[in-house]
Amino acid sequence: xxxxxxxxxxxxxxxxxxxxxxxxxxxxxxxxxxxxxxxxxxxxxxxxxxxxxxxxxxxxxxxxxxxxxxxxxxxxxxxxxxxxxxxxxxxxxxxxxxxxxxxxxxxxxxxxxxxxxxxxxxxxxxxxxxxxxxxxxxxxxxxxxxxxxxxxxxxxxxxxxxxxxxxxxxxxxxxxxxxxxxxxxxxxxxxxxxxxxxxxxxxxxxxxxxxxxxxxxxxxxxxxxxxxxxxxxxxxxxxxxxxxxxxxxxxxxxxxxxxxxxxxxxxxxxxxxxxxxxxxxxxxxxxxxxxxxxxxxxxxxxxxxxxxxxxxxxxxxxxxxxxxxxxxxxxxxxxxxxxxxxxxxxxxxxxxxxxxxxxxxxxxxxxxxxxxxxxxxxxxxx
Amino acid sequence: xxxxxxxxxxxxxxxxxxxxxxxxxxxxxxxxxxxxxxxxxxxxxxxxxxxxxxxxxxxxxxxxxxxxxxxxxxxxxxxxxxxxxxxxxxxxxxxxxxxxxxxxxxxxxxxxxxxxxxxxxxxxxxxxxxxxxxxxxxxxxxxxxxxxxxxxxxxxxxxxxxxxxxxxxxxxxxxxxxxxxxxxxxxxxxxxxxxxxxxxxxxxxxxxxxxxxxxxxxxxxxxxxxxxxxxxxxxxxxxxxxxxxxxxxxxxxxxxxxxxxxxxxxxxxxxxxxxxxxxxxxxxxxxxxxxxxxxxxxxxxxxxxxxxxxxxxxxxxxxxxxxxxxxxxxxxxxxxxxxxxxxxxxxxxxxxxxxxxxxxxxxxxxxx
Lengths: 382, 368
Description:
The complex is a heterodimer of chains A (382) and B (368).
Chain A: E1 5-10, E2 31-32, E3 36-37, H1 39-48, E4 53-57, H2 63-69, E5 83-87, E6 91-92, E7 95-96, H3 102-107, H4 110-114, E8 120-125, E9 128-130, H5 134-144, E10 148-154, E11 164-168, E12 174-179, E13 188-197, H6 198-209, H7 218-228, E14 233-238, E15 242-244, H8 248-257, E16 284-286, E17 291-293, E18 295-297, E19 302-303, E20 306-308, E21 311-312, E22 317-318, E23 323-325, E24 328-329, E25 334-335, E26 340-342, E27 344-346, E28 351-352, E29 357-359, E30 367-369, H9 374-381
Parallel strand pairs in A: 1-4, 1-8, 4-5, 10-14, 16-19, 17-20, 18-21, 19-22, 20-23, 21-24, 22-25, 23-26, 24-27, 25-28, 26-29, 27-30
Antiparallel strand pairs in A: 2-3, 6-7, 8-13, 9-15, 10-13, 11-12
Helix pairs in contact in A: 6-7
Chain B: E1 4-9, E2 30-31, E3 35-36, H1 38-47, E4 52-56, H2 62-68, E5 82-86, H3 101-106, H4 108-113, E6 118-122, E7 126-128, H5 133-141, E8 146-151, E9 165-168, E10 174-178, E11 186-194, H6 195-207, H7 213-218, E12 227-231, E13 236-238, H8 242-251, H9 255-263, E14 278-280, E15 285-291, E16 296-297, E17 300-306, E18 311-312, E19 317-319, E20 322-323, E21 328-329, E22 334-336, E23 338-340, E24 345-346, E25 351-353, E26 360-362
Keywords (chain B): Glycogen biosynthesis, Nucleotidyltransferase, Transferase
Domain Nucleotidyl transferase (chain B): 17-230
Family (chain B): Belongs to the bacterial/plant glucose-1-phosphate adenylyltransferase family.
């Protein structure tokens, strides 16, 4: 069935810089914001932008990610004629091949895209926190008549060396792409969001497939090849909050951002809702002696201790005299009595024994507690 | 395997809850910060391996339809069987049935086509977290014609005066059904019987122009039917007045009752919403409260229940109250012993106080 634009959401990355957080869990499936998983932002943007044909490319540790996405129901993507499809690597006549790069993942699913006979293909990554109307990007792309439009974000000049920087002319035509430049001549960073004319992209994917020295990556191979051929690459300026939660530090920072008054709308916004699974826990129960300031709390939590600038996912228990500051508690965490935590991320279903005291100093990376290291860490401090 | 189909019979339910039931049936009144009263009955039925549930909807069922939809959130959106909401709409000139018998008579197809041989019938106001498996097994073991689910309450002052009491002999057989205030074994409104007996009793009642299936079909035939009872010992509540509604909501602020109702068995299923986590701001002071998601709290909340999406501004105070979905309490407002129905706005510096244990009820969408 003909569809104007097919969305391909890259969700197969391992997110190795997130350490324990992505141990056996794909980065897009990492919990975020007291209720969500990181991929919910991209999927909700799809629904809110009326992009109803979405292929989700998975590879690394997909179990929880697949369970989370299912048939796409929370995002209204369980549709009769298009909707959401999970695209995991598969076997072919010449054997089984994993996705060896972002571009390769699309190359291996050319048949999927072709089945919708689209004019355009939108490439997204499933690991950023942001609200974006992709429909506006599409309109802009049609208006300029570019071969590809790349969404860019103005970053502080001192951060340019961490990003892929687009050098553009005054009318936002891209003439050069620099991956993590030491000395940048522009501060427009690529957000990893590409809107291609499918015919053009398909040609470059097929060409790239044959190159044995290619890493089959959009940023490293496809975009440079198109630049070399003088294709029309246009930049689309995105304004608003966008966070790459690639490290434990930036993941924690993004949570602290949620207490910023200007950013409260990131989660609680009737005009641009973020959708996710909801489970059937009862309302949260706050005890007589609880003290709660600047915190986000989900269903099923029972709080008797004190909380400050903390994010609690569903079904968390914080018992008497425990004091939790600037911390993130994943679903099912149980904090026993007299615990003190500051700048700590506690993973799903971990029990913190009574009297535990764990603090990450402001200059240190926040501590991640998991079933694997809780024993060692509590012995140390207890 | 012997299985049951379910009927939730709302035909005789009264609208006890003042402003809360002006525009909705008792079954769909919000309860305990997240639920509608019917959620408990539906969840318990689904837990009992019941895969077909019919609801005899009588009136004011817009909010009920909105809440239940196709039944997906109770896992009842089945291609085969599942959920059947049956409103009263029939035009059979030869129909002589009356009262709730009209619901049985005009929906015979549901009962006959069902894949189960047994029927579990219930109202909506029995609030508990249980399954009816043991009741069903007891029914089969005793080879009873009908088995009634009973329970006892310590706080008899919160019991409906008209609640039906059950007398049994030493074998557990029911000898008398009455409204005797001195008896303690209360009928919960839940009972099970074989489909063939149900059909027979329904025909018999209609033939004699009766209008109440339970009273005329079962109570009046106690002498010839083998009616048993099965006693439920867990936590439960029967809602029948604003006072009991308020009382049973407030009870859930107590950890023990909360745990018994919500965490002792499987989760109570309800309509899935999409609300963000509740946001407690720097100025929030919350003690002893049960709070749904999507709230923004900057004021003071004590001994109260907040449903999803409630906003409590700075310097607002809420005490001993039940605040339903999307209400807004503006700065400086003080409310105590109050029930606010959905979408109520309490404007700046307004003071509202109800009497203790007799809450003041504000109707939906009011601005005060």
